[in-house]
Amino acid sequence: MTHRRHRSDRPSPEGLDLCRQRCQGGSGGIAGQQEESTVFENSRAFPGVSTDDVAASKEFYADRLGLTVTDTMGGIDVELPGGAHLFVYEKPNHEPSSYTFLNFGVEDIDAAVDELRAAGVETKIYSDEDFPTDSRGIARGLGGGPDIAWFKDPSGNVLAVLADPGPDA
Prior knowledge:
The chain is an alpha/beta fold. It has a domain at 48-163: 2,3-Dihydroxybiphenyl 1,2-Dioxygenase, domain 1 (Roll), CATH 3.10.180. Helix content is 19%, strand content 24%. The chain contains three helices and eight strands, in the order αβαββββαβββ. The chain has helices at 13-23, 54-64, 109-118, and strands at residues 48-51, 68-72, 75-79, 85-90, 100-106, 138-139, 148-152, 158-163. The strands form two sheets. It has a four-stranded mixed beta sheet, covered by helices on one side. A hairpin with a 5-residue loop joins strand 3 (75-79) and strand 4 (85-90). The protein is globular and about 50 Å long. The two termini are 41 Å apart. The model is unreliable at 1-30 (pLDDT under 50).
């Protein structure tokens, strides 16, 4: 594992030479030493969110959102579009997120909101004083941002669908 310096540490002369080599496009290694990798270089990163009811969360992510859900490590693994994974775990003193912890970029936000509402998911979760939305909960171009609709999982964590034209736009 590579040692990380604190800002208050003074670099060694070898460290300054290494920095100069890297900045100038050199190999980056000190003579006679192999470059080390970090512990995170080959890791698998994934976000996690707490719940007060794993069974209700499993039903929500699988049946209402249509995502693949697997029991794992005392919680559930939710396979997200694009191949990422979300770990949902039970926490006795769970407090819902006060922010949008997960966004789903969609090509057609109106169709996405229709699908959510048909599955029993409420998409008008904020008052118009907080975020002005239409009757279905879609904020259109709020503050110059994309069209977006927020919703909550069974534990009160906030998610969103937002208009995302895709990489070709």
